[in-house]
Amino acid sequence: MMRILPLIPLALLTTPAAAQTQPSPARLKADVEKLVSFGTRHTLSDPDHPTRGIGAARRWFAGELGRIGEACGGCIEVANVARTFTNDRAPKGVEIVDVLGFQPGRDPKRVVIVMGHIDSRVTDVMNATSDAPGANDDASGVALVLEAARILSREKFDATIVYAALSGEEQGLFGGTLLAETARERGWTVSAVLNNDIVGNTVGQDGRRVADRVRVFSEGIREVEPLPGQLARRADGGEDDGPSRALAKAVDGVAGKLPRGLDVFVVRRFDRFGRGGDHSPFLKLGYPAVRFSVGVENYDQQHQDLRSADGKVYGDTVDKMDFAYLAKVTAINVATLRRLATAPAAPASVTIGGALATDTSVKWAPVPGASGYRVHWRRADAQDWQQHVDVKDAQATIEGVIVDDTFVGVSALAADGTESLVTFGGRERR
């Protein structure tokens, strides 16, 4: 059974953090070093020890979120969700606690989520006592979440932003499962999930340095779609335009407007080959979710006992990280969160028509709070939207555009023109 744990009392918090407008490499490094200082953050480590283990790390993260919230006059509410999970990596059962910060928007039920996992491990996934620094995997993601909260907490949004540190990723994606199921149980409309896991290094296994891009993984055909739905998407040509792929394309567009930023490498699979992460449980429930990960990985620095052997140094330590790079990944997350939390929700469905005609008709479900809509289209051999027109009503006709040769999608617009994700248009289903 899921338990909702109490808020962190503000009386226990210390001096508010200073406001920031850009991600700080120094602040990110300090947060990663603090997380490493807990020795191990293994999910099965002592949750009650005051200075070592996952419990101490979670309490520190909650305290940091609380300080940020206090600095903005209580704009972030800190709470935990918890539930016991059991599997072969937790045979005696373990209480999984996700630490959450809620920055309420004008619509408390619509959320955008930014998250990383706070747990760490060494070579033996059951070793809960040896030092497991987990600097890049995934203190980098947790530090990014805190930095995003510092920057965005001074702003007001339409959607609620959820800042999350998840537990139990290494033992079986427990924390992602808990938060995804919490979203479903509470009836949240989830506009986006940004999972940040291994986002702080630039030197790979073979010594190559990749500091100019970040990978963003997304599904095309939705896992949640039954076979008839998948076949319908195939018939419409929408394999590259599911909600999570639309999110990845939006991230790419946002990143392209950031000065001296990173290229977003949109990887057209849901995660690295044969692997997974905490966004996976969200995909199982139909929510748009992507994973950020570095442009190149070093496997000697993941899930390794701290040691040297045959001239190699193993272990996930702070000195292997690139905090200027991590700041750039953070900036992309911040800009994406800002856009999607400002915009309305995406249209729930879009249908198109125009068979045996020279015009294409488009209609969609009206979006509460939308000031208008943007109808996008592109040639059917292109991946990115090429043209658009803005309209006020929830229908449009694109004259002279033949539906056989064209893909169409629609986004919702805020009063200032901020745009939601694009919902792909297909045939009306009866």
UniProtKB/TrEMBL annotation:
Keywords: Hydrolase, Metalloprotease, Protease, Secreted, Signal. It comes from the Bacteria. One of its GO terms (molecular function) is metalloexopeptidase activity. It is found in: Secreted. One of its GO terms (cellular component) is extracellular region. The keyword Acyltransferase does not apply. Residues 1-19 form the signal peptide. This is M20/M25/M40 family metallo-hydrolase. It comes from Sphingomonas gei. The lineage of its organism: Bacteria, Pseudomonadati, Pseudomonadota, Alphaproteobacteria, Sphingomonadales.
